[in-house]
Known about the structure:
Distance between the termini: 63 Å
Radius of gyration: 23 Å
Number of strands: 11
Oligomer: single chain
CATH architecture of the largest domain: 3-Layer(aba) Sandwich
CATH superfamily of the largest domain: Periplasmic binding protein-like II
Low-confidence stretches: 1-25, 291-295
Helix content: 40-55%
Mean pLDDT: 87
Number of domains: 2
Strand content: 15-25%
Amino acid sequence: MRWVAALLAAALLTAALVGCGGGGAEPGAPKGATLVLDFQPNAVHSGIYAAQANGDFADEGIDLHIQEPSSTADSAKLLETGRADFAVMDINDFGIARERGLDLVAIAAIVQRPLASVIVRDPNEIRTPADLAGKTIGVTGVPSDDAVLDTVLRSGGVDPSDVHKVTIGFNAVADLAAGKVDAATAFWNAEGVELQQRGIPVREFRVDQFGAPRYPELVVATRAGSEQKASDFLDALQRGYRALGQNPQSALGDLLGAVPDLDRASQEGQLHALTSAQAFSAGNEGGPPTAMGSLRSYGAWLTWATQHGLVSKSDAGQIKAGFAQP
């Protein structure tokens, strides 16, 4: 009868565990959640790290794990498979994921304007997009690069076929510095800042100043059906970016404290570029990230994206449905 006694003891132990909240968890304990970033941690994420350092997520009952992706494709995959609860995504990647049938929802915008640009290495020779005609221009190979380059070129009356386009991967800084290309598609808040810090004179044609609308570059996404669960997360996130707006250096310190391998001077330059351009503001004044829903923000992006073939017009309705309404 020893086996009967063993089963009874196991049953009593299980009941005790359930009575304590299941699995030994205390009632009211913070809920674990994973946020995967769009890229390695950098100044644009300072508000996230400020919220983490200030205990904003913990105050909302969230034990948040911030995860760096191994590639830009990670965010959509990790969300879809349930290995991440939230993800920071480039809006173009989000649209493409929706087009491919992934049931994701954008619930907030972190960066409220495009970060993409065409950067030229000789600002004296290339003063306007019209001067790009006949030049060699590097692109990473990411689909949105073509849309950015075409937009900037056409703003200067240049047909995209009138430039020599080469794929250089993510080597814009090295190739521009070495003079291997005359210009390259790159982020003005990252590669643009690095080139300037190296003392290399450049000119930036920021896409929303040369033909594209002002749209939110980075959005926070989750799986469809999880929007309600995201409200506490968004409350904490907004407090983090509000703290960044009030004291950028403190928020940057939170980022550098969590990721000490980052170069302080580089991140200070990036954050200064972002705040100077009011990239975290939905309007012309500073402020925290806002809930998605404005047709003038993601709607303008969707129109631009379909016009340039980033996503299909026939899938525009499906993509639009992926933006949470306020």
